[in-house]
Write a structure and sequence with these properties.
The protein is α/β, with parallel strands linked by helices. Helices cover 40% and strands 13% of the residues. The strands form three sheets. It has an eight-stranded mixed beta sheet with strand order 2-9-8-7-6-3-4-5, sandwiched between helices. A hairpin with a 7-residue loop joins strand 10 and strand 11.
């Protein structure tokens, strides 16, 4: 290499020695790494949480685009406010009102998807070594953000009714006894990603009270709350303590992820800092996307469209649960009342991550449970997404998955007594995934 290498550079990356220490936490998520393979048409992907945007009324979306360009083109193509469009923030209040949230548009910050909102909150609160409490398992995208800010994600046990209050109390006590600083609880209480469970109504006031008494902020991520099936979920945690909860929402699941429009509803002082952090990161969210979403919400029957999505996803959930019952009755899994995901428990001798290459060779993809734990545990679980494939493809994918699991068990049975065929598991430093609740 030439003499232009920075100190510590390598032949592969001359600037390797110059990166900030925090870049060591940057890594491709297992979910994103699956997309290239899972997008092949012959593979039934039960891996990614991609909404079924084909169900959208394309004529109404197109009409919204055209009206924005013809009537407000100069505004749509220009910079906007760092806090986001006032008109859209008013519409966001209407969306949140469907879940029982009453708030001021002044306390809403529009973001580039709720993923950016997670990043902004992390930027504001996390110093290296700080602790984030999160469900076991937890959303892979949030874990990656917390890791990138050099924080420590401590998982708190969940069960069929969501986050376990006593486990939360114990986690707070243990971390503080060890001298560590807890900055917030990150939670997806409704139709959890990846577990599919919903925090029970009777637990919600207790979780809020535990955090209030301990002085722990709650970051409530709720992209799926309106996508319920049989019954709506209980009111959000935000309704129980507005000053102690930063609430995150998104149009990615109820409209389309391509718009990249989400929001944060925060206590006033936090909102001020969120705006400053957003401006330093991107100047302003896309004015064009915001205006199109505002136009759609103003002219279309968006509540009716969400109801259509509910029917679409419920049919797919039912196809998945039926397929699991027919082809993998020896396993156990969660039964979601909304959202996109089923969390499957494998026999303890199987390793979902080690099994994935064989599954892809058999033309079915899933997400191994290891993606959803900060320490890489969870190998005895996998996440199945029912949101995007058709019901027929879901049934086909489950049949293929059953063949893969059966083949792995047959192989283990054949070679039993010769030692394990999979890599050793990571030590379980954190709480376990939800129990078997098929």
């Amino acid at each position: 290499m030439s003499g232009t290498n920075g100190p510590g550079g390598t032949n592969l990356d001359p600037w390797y020695g110059q990166y900030a220490e925090r870049t060591s936490g940057l890594a491709a998520s297992e979910v994103r790494a699956l997309f290239a393979v899972a997008s092949r048409p012959e593979v039934v992907s039960l891996a990614g949480g991609m909404p079924y945007v084909t169900a959208l009324p394309k004529d109404l979306i197109k009409a919204s685009f055209e009206r924005v360009l013809s009537t407000r083109g100069d505004v749509a193509l220009q910079y906007g406010s760092g806090q986001g469009s006032p008109a859209l923030r008013e519409r966001i209040l209407e969306v949140m009102a469907e879940e029982g949230i009453r708030a001021s548009a002044d306390d809403v910050v529009t973001t580039t998807g709720s993923q950016q909102a997670i990043d902004l909150v992390a930027k504001l609160f996390l110093d290296p070594g700080d602790v984030v409490l999160a469900e076991a398992p937890s959303y892979v995208g949030a874990i990656g953000v917390f890791r990138s800010y050099q924080a420590r994600t401590v998982h708190v046990a969940t069960d069929a009714n969501g986050l376990v209050p006593e486990a939360l109390r114990e986690a707070i006590r243990a971390e503080r006894s060890a001298g560590r600083t807890i900055k917030f609880l990150y939670t997806v209480p409704d139709f959890h990603n990846p577990a599919g469970v919903t925090l029970a109504a009777e637990r919600r006031p207790e979780i809020v009270d535990i955090c209030r008494e301990a002085g722990v902020l709650i970051v409530e991520d709720n992209p799926y709350g309106l996508l319920w099936f049989e019954n709506p979920p209980p009111p959000p945690l935000r309704t129980l303590n507005p000053e102690g909860v930063v609430y995150l929402g998104s149009f990615s699941k109820t409209l389309a992820p391509g718009f990249r429009v989400g929001w944060a509803l925060a206590p006033h002082a936090v909102r001020e800092k969120l705006v400053l952090a957003a401006e330093s990161a991107i100047l302003s969210p896309s004015a064009f996307s915001q205006l199109v979403v505002t136009e759609y919400l103003s002219t279309a029957d968006w509540r009716g469209q969400i109801a259509i999505f509910r029917g679409v996803y419920q049919e797919r959930r039912d196809a998945m649960l039926t397929g699991l019952g027919e082809h993998l009755p020896e396993l156990s899994w969660t039964v979601p009342n909304g959202g996109f995901y089923v969390w499957v428990s494998l026999p303890p001798e199987l390793d979902a991550k080690q099994m994935l290459p064989r599954a892809v060779s058999e033309l079915v993809a899933y997400t191994p449970g290891t993606a959803f734990f900060a320490d890489g545990s969870g190998a005895d679980h996998l996440r199945l997404s029912f949101c995007h494939p058709t019901p027929d493809n879901i049934r086909l994918g489950i049949r293929r998955l059953a063949g893969v699991i059966g083949g792995e068990l047959d192989l283990l049975s054949t070679f039993s007594g010769t030692g394990p065929l999979h890599a050793p598991r990571h030590d379980r430093r954190f709480s376990s995934p939800p129990p078997d609740i098929g």
